[in-house]
Amino acid sequence: MAAKPSTTIARKARTRAEADFATWLMMAKLGSFDTLPDNARKVLDDYRARLDRMSEIESKAIAVRETYQAYYSDMGGTGDAPEPEPRTVRDDPPVDNVVRFQKPAKPKPAPARPADRGARPTPQGGRKPVPALLIFAALVAIVVAWKFLTR
After folding, report:
1. How far apart are CA 24 and CA 34, in angstroms?
2. How remote is the C-alpha of 56 from its chain's centroid?
3. How far apart (Å, rounded) are the C-alpha atoms in residues 38 and 31?
């Protein structure tokens, strides 16, 4: 087994190779083949040439492997790039754990008592809000009292 730094480099190189190849392939399909870098064009040309001799999956695997090896050595990996560990296959049937997005249900208001009909609803804390006019009147009273007391 490879040393820990080599496996870290290998994992990063493999992820980057898979992502780059998918990006290059999509760009080529969208007609941007000429804007790709030289190494990407070479990989895609080799990929297309192999499609005549083998299936798309095999050709893609070889193209990703070649890109992975190049990235592994560029990132400082020594020797041949290690094979990635195969993903474990479970015998369990796949579980559908996707949950559809649902907006939270609006809370239903409590049934109103006859005495509360027509009154404003109280906020969460249970205290009624103080009207702005009452606050303004209290401030005016404080200012008048202050002026009266300081004379």
Report:
1. 11
2. 29
3. 16
